[in-house]
Structure formats: C-alpha cells, structure tokens
Amino acid sequence: MELLVSSAIGILTAAGLYLVMRLRSFPVILGISLLTYAVNVFLFASGRLTTGSPPILRYGVETYADPLPQALVLTAIVISFGMTAVVVMLALGAYLGSDDDHVDDPVPSEDEEAQS
Amino acid sequence: MTHWLILPVILPAILAPFIVLAARYHIGIQRVLSVAGVIALIAITAGLAWQASDGTVMLYQLGDWAAPFGIVVVGDRLSTMMVLLTSVLALFVLLYAIGSGWDERGRHFHALFQFQLMGILGAFLTGDLFNLFVFFEVLLIASYGLMIHSGGNERLRAGVQYVLFNLLGSTLFLFALGAIYAEAGTLNMADLAQRVQLIGPEATVGIRIASVLLLLVFAIKAALVPLHFWLPSSYAEAPAPVAALFAIMTKVGAYAIIRVYTMIFSPELEATAGLHGWWLLPAALVSLAIGMVGVLAAKKLDRLVAFSVIGSMGMVMVAISMFTEVSIAAALYYIIHSTLAAAALFLITDLVRACRMNLNLTPMAPVAGAALTAGLFFMAAIAMAGLPPLSGFVGKLLILQAAFTDEMAVWVWATVLISSLISVVGFARAGSVVFWKAQSVTQEETAEVAPQPSALSYVAVGSLLGLLVLYTVFAGRAHAYMTEMSAQLFAPDRYISTVLETPGKLSETVGEKKEGDN
C-alpha cells in the first residue's frame, strides 16, 4: 500500500507540474487540480496509513486512524475547490478579454510599448 | 485569557458580510462602516500592543479548548506590533481609496478590504501552522478580488498569474504542513517548538525537508529571489490602494519566517543548521540587488515601485538571515519603515497617474497638482532609497551595524551600499524625467486636462509620510522596543509555556496523552 500511495502522489505531482509548465490557462488549471489532489493524498498519508480503522474513539476498537489529517484534508479540499473556481473565472475573463490563453507575460513589441 | 485578542479577526469578519448584505448599493454607508471599522481596529490593536509591551504573552483559546488540541490565538510583542502596523496602514489606504474614488470603480471594494484585513491580522495572531495556512488563504482570496478590482484586460491577465502563483504556493504550503505533521505529529507552533528539540541528529532528514519547504513557502510570500516573479506584474497592475495594502502582505512572509525560525527551527537546532547562512542570506542579497537594478531598469513608474518593494524585502531578509538578536531588531525596524514607504510610493504613483494620465517614464507636460505630487514623491523616494534624514537611512545603518559580527559582512556591506547607490540613481532618474523634465515640454492645446486629485488623497499620502517622519524622530525609542521584541523572540520559553500550560477543556488529559504519543 505504501508503494501505491507514494507512487500515486509522485505521479500526480509530476503530471501536475508538467501541466503547470505548459503556461496555457487550461492545462495550468488542470495541473493545479492534479497538484491539489496530490497534496490531499499526501496529507492523508502524513497521519500514517491504516485501512478500515475508525478515526473516532469507540469501545472494542484497537487501531485508530489519525483524525487530524482528515480534518486538514477537509479544509484543504474546500479551499482548493474555491480557489480553482476563482482561477477558472479569472482565466476565462482574461482569455475572452485578450483572445489569448497564455498565462505568462506577453513580450511587447516596439510600437505596443510606445503606445502604452 | 483576554477576549480582546480575537477581536481584530472577528470585527472585520462580521463587518465584511454586513457591508455586502446590508449596504451593497450605498457607497456612502459602506465608506462610513469601513472607516469606522478600521478606526475601531486601530484602537483595539493599539490597546493590545500596549498590553504586550511589557513582555506579556496574551493567549486566547477558541472554544476554551486547551492547546495543542484546540486552536489558539497568541499575542506577543511582535504580533501585536504587526497588527497595529496593519490597521494603521489600512486606515490611510482606505482614506486614499475613498478620496481618489477607487472604491467606486468596481463592486464590493470595502467588503473585500475587510476580508483582507481579517486574513492579515489573523495570520499575525495565530499560534498554529495550519491556521496560518487558512488565514493565508483568507487574505489571498480577498486579495484576488481586490487585485482585479475595476477590471481591464491587463489587470485580469496579471490577476491570473498572481492567483496561479499563489495557488502553487498554497499547495507547497500544504506539502510542508503534511511533512511537518508526519515528522512531529502536531502543528501547534509552541508544541512543535518543544517536539522538534526532541528529534535526534540521526533523524534529521524529514524535519529538514519540512523546514526547507516551509521556508520556500514563506519566501514566495516575501517575494524572495528566485521566487519573486509574481510580484512586479501583479503589484504594478493592481489598483494603487490595493497595491499599497499589499505592501504589508510581503511582510507576512517575513513575519512568518521570523516567527517560525526563531521559535521552532532555531539556528541552534542541529537538524536545520546552516539554513539561514547558506541559503537564505545569498538569496536575500541577490533579491536586494535584483530589486534595486529593477528600479534602475524600469520603464514605467509602477514597475519601478514594485521592484523597489522586492529590493526592500531583500534588505529585510538580509537582516533576518543573519539571525542574531541585533539583526532581527534591525529587520523589525526596517519592516515598519519599508511597509509605510512602499505604501506611500504606490499611492503617489496613483497621484502621478491622475496628474498625467500614464506612468511611462517619458517627459510630459506638467498639469495641475504636479508640484505637490513631485514633492511627495521626492520625500518618499528619499525614504525608500535610504538616504538621510528619513528612517530608511536609520534602518540601513542598523542593518550594516548588525552585519559587523557576521562572517559574510563584506558581502552584506558591499551589496547594501552598492544597491543603495543604484536605487538612488534609479529614483533620481525617474523623478527628474517625470517631474523636472516635464517643465521643458509645452502643453498641447488639444490635450485633455486631468482633474486635480482630491484633497483627501493628499491627506492620506501626507499622513503616511508624516508617520515616516515620526518614525525617524522616535527612531531611538522604536529601536529600543524592537530590541526588546527581538530578545523576546530569542527566548520563546514564555510563549511556549503560556500556550501549553494555560488550562482549558481537556487540560487534565493533555499530560497523559502526550506521554502516550512519545
């Protein structure tokens, strides 16, 4: 299980970083989402990996999952969803406004520079 | 336990939704509420700063749950000073936004402003790393709204970059938090400070990675080279009052570095030894140099100011990364100075825009109000470049003095002095082109005349500069206080014991649980 989880985190992060470096708004947003998935799984793993163990104290249960990473992940998911929505709207606005979905700064040509 | 401590977070948190819900269509009511809220904040934070000035560490346990299981808000000398600085800055920025009509050029300016304040103040006050993340997100999501306030393609584009960069930063922050939690099993700063001490020299890899990740996150916030790329565009394109408020946001990164790396990963700690001297100091020196070279190279006034922010953050980080009591005191002195000076410069940039319609560094005919604006710019530029007699000079002297004992002293002295010279040249060039050379250009008959900025705008900028002058006059007293503050930072025992030993709910079982964990 350790190998599966860690390789999943690694692959998600690598794919996310690759997409972010494409510097076009759609791949970048996808990449950011992949990265947030990776970080959520990573946060889960930070409380040690267990299967089938409850996070809440109960009689007759021997092994527990750490509840704190689950609380952290919950917060992180909410925040990352909100942020992704914001960035989608912004990117859409920027794309419709300038007919260009690059997220890096354009290199201004000489006459453009004179105008601005 | 003092209940006042949570109020700087609660007050804007209540005021902002109230402004959105009740006063959406009435800009007048919004303005009154917003200004009243900020003035109340100043009163509260001044009270807190006064209370903390004798070295008391104030603690507020949310829901009366004891740390490390509950969330705590902690106020010591440093955090109360930072919240006071934030609320004072917010008042003048708000006055400027009202005076120049920026708050009418888009919706929900005041609500977002209050949310942003809530995030910043919360980040300064929190005693828990995960809450630091949450407050970072609160201040960021408000800043996204403020950043694209009043719209426009350029601004949206810069906004997308800003949001994406910060999202990446947040992801990195979560990775850092996960790594720290996996190593230490807690995210409460005081608790962490104790547990990290227990980690032996043979198990340093994990905690070292975690501390480096965390340093990277804070360096992104502080716009330290090589993580500064987001700053020039976003600060230059943001509306001027917003950019002025953002002047405190880079300091949140500096604050977090000071807090975490004095208390948790202190220089004596074997696991994270060498982090400041080997990594932070060179990066800080390079960002100081790059910032000041950027000042010289900028073609537009707003970019110039944005680069001067990078440079001044570099200066702050140089002082921080030497990590002695003297140098941290110097850094704290410089943080206040550079916040006020950068905010004033951003506002003056907007005054220039109002006077002459654009910010290109080319001579244009002088218009109404240019003389006064030129005077203000002159003063702010002197402060930012660190020429005598203003506080930038004092701050720079303190930093140079602190560098005497450091082994990198030659590099620090050389970089600080040469980059100061470069920035003086850069500001002088900008000022002379924009204001002086303008006298030799004759006004075109057909050119539309820009309206004179309102008196309130000048009052706001003038007050910021007035604060700088006061800060210079009382430099001795201020520095003495910073020295006490730095002494408190380097002796975090009182902070730790206050946080961990104040009883609350669950307090009887805390001891047992801890023994079980180890």
TrEMBL record, chain A:
Name by which UniProt lists this protein: Multisubunit potassium/proton antiporter PhaC subunit
InterPro entries membership: CPA3_antiporter_subunitC, NUOK/Mnh_C1-like
Membrane topology: Multi-pass membrane protein
Principal cellular location given in the protein's record: membrane
Subcellular location: Cell membrane
Pfam families: Oxidored_q2 (PF00420)
Keyword Metal-binding: no
PANTHER family: ANTIPORTER SUBUNIT MNHC2-RELATED
From TrEMBL, chain B:
Protein's name according to its UniProt entry: Multisubunit potassium/proton antiporter PhaD subunit
Residues annotated as domain NADH:quinone oxidoreductase/Mrp antiporter transmembrane: 127-422
Highest taxon listed in the record's lineage: Bacteria
InterPro entries: CPA3_Na-H_Antiporter_D, NADH_UbQ_OxRdtase, ND/Mrp_TM
Any GO CC annotation of this UniProt entry: plasma membrane
Free-text function comment from the UniProt entry: NDH-1 shuttles electrons from NADH, via FMN and iron-sulfur (Fe-S) centers, to quinones in the respiratory chain. The immediate electron acceptor for the enzyme in this species is believed to be ubiquinone. Couples the redox reaction to proton translocation (for every two electrons transferred, four hydrogen ions are translocated across the cytoplasmic membrane), and thus conserves the redox energy in a proton gradient.
Main location, first listed in the record: membrane
Membrane disposition: Multi-pass membrane protein
Subcellular localization, as worded in the UniProt entry: Cell membrane; Membrane
Coiled coil ranges: none
Family statement: Belongs to the CPA3 antiporters (TC 2.A.63) subunit D family.
The organism of origin for this protein: Litoreibacter ponti
Keyword rRNA-binding: no
UniProt record, GO biological process: ATP synthesis coupled electron transport
Keywords: Cell membrane, Membrane, Transmembrane, Transmembrane helix
GO molecular function terms attached to this record: NADH dehydrogenase (ubiquinone) activity
Residue intervals passing through the bilayer: 6-25, 32-52, 78-97, 109-126, 132-150, 162-182, 205-231, 238-258, 278-297, 304-324, 330-352, 364-390, 410-435, 455-474
